Amino acid sequence: MLAYLIRRLMAVVVMLVVIMLVVFCIFFLVPKWAGIDPATMYVGKTSDAAAVEAIRQKLQLGDPIFVQLWEFFKGIFVGRTYTAGGDVTHCVAPCFGYSFKSEQAIWPVLTDRLPVTLALAIGAAVLWLIFGLAAGVLSALKRGTLWDRGAMVVALAGVSLPIYFTGLLSLAIFSYGLGWLDAQYVPLEESFGGWLGGMLLPWITLAFLYAAMYARITRATMLEVMGEDYIRTARAKGLTEQVVIGKHAMRSTLTPILTLLGMDLGALVGGAILTETTFSLPGLGQAVLKAINDRDLPVILGVTLITSLAVIIANLVVDLLYAAIDPRVRLA
User: Fold this and answer.
1) 219 φ/ψ angles, rounded to the nearest 5 degrees
2) H or E element: which one contains 270?
3) Which class is domain 110-331?
């Protein structure tokens, strides 16, 4: 197990370096190849020649590309100083960039909004795993029954309906209509009850979309697994149906579910833009949307790095869970 863990950690380090290289190329090299001055992309909507030239000096866009790459990497780990004439700006580590439009480092902006997005993603993931797996397994075991057909119809509706429709519908019914839940987000440090009430509808709405998808995949995988030879052998040995399903069938069923969970959870940490916008949650999704409207490129760059890091960490956890569920994975 230790050797497997070391291999996975080394792969994570290599992947992080590759992702940072790709992000650097997208935000600094590709615009040059397209004939666009990168400095004009970092000054916001309104700019003049003096502002563009100051940005060019601060970002060292006139230096060789390897010098720019080294400053980009160095800034993440030890911080960075932006200098243009007598104007000096310090960005402490980890420096994910600096917004010259809002005159603030990107990392504090991200860390201020990240807890909201994490709470949304993790809370919704718990709900969609519980209800999605349960619905999928029951549908597979009761194949062809009224429960199976009804659950799959609901799952199809959940996959098909866009998040902004179900979000607005849930707000209209449960918040504005019945008054059961509060639509206003309350920070956790102010009131746990208010925070929980404000997060329930976003959790349920987001979980409804993913639970529907997980239910369909769980059902299909469970039906395939239940026809395998080792399942028939387990039954022939006299094992109870609970043991056959819980100990043998579920292990194989969980493998694709964990793969999906790693990708979905990692992507949501980067910001569930539609959900956060619908429910006015001050998370990373709203930060990205505002940055796009303001053409504040450093914020978009920072969220891109955070999202990539979240996906890598989520998939590392998934790989470790693979090894716990199926020991054969450790030999791969």
Assistant:
1) -60, -50
2) none
3) mainly alpha
- Using alpha carbons, list the distances in angstroms from residue 98 to 28, 49, 204, 302: 14, 20, 36, 9
- Mean pLDDT across the chain, nearest whole number? 81
What pLDDT does 325 receive? 67
Share of the chain above pLDDT 90, in %: 0
Chain segment 85-117, per-residue pLDDT in tens: 777 888 888 888 888 777 888 888 888 888 888
Domain limits, the chain: 15-95, 110-331
Rounded CA separation 46/227 (Å): 64
CA dihedral 222, 223, 229, 234 (to 10 degrees): 60
Please report where in the chains the tokens 């028939």 appear, as a residue: 232
Name the one residue in this structure whose structure tokens are 């030879």: 229
Per DSSP, the residues of 23-57 read: HHIIIIIHHHHTT--GGGGSS-SS--HHHHHHHHH
Task: Concatenate the DSSP letters of all residues of 70-131 into one string.
Answer: HHHHHHHHH-EEEEETTEEEEEPSS---EETTTTEEHHHHHHHHHHHHHHHHHHHHHHHHHH
Secondary structure element (H or E) that encloses residue 177, with its range: none
Tokens of 46: 């309104």
- How much is the average pLDDT of 225-230? 78
